[in-house]
Amino acid sequence: MFVCLCKGVSDRQLKQAVTDGANSWREVRIETECATQCGKCACMAKAIVDDALAQK
Ligand code: FES
Description:
mainly alpha, 3 helices, Arc Repressor Mutant, subunit A, globular, two-stranded antiparallel ribbon, binds FE2/S2 (inorganic) cluster
């Protein structure tokens, strides 16, 4: 499912970024460019990343 339409980032890509070593929402954001345009996806994307980080 696409979370960020502006940058075409899916929830899978966000989770993959965490699996690949990102340790914060900030790092995932830099890596995927999620939420770097309109920002509307930020809240949901951060929740997905926080969830993935908690399962690490
Ligand atoms: Fe993610 Fe616009 S939907 S920056």
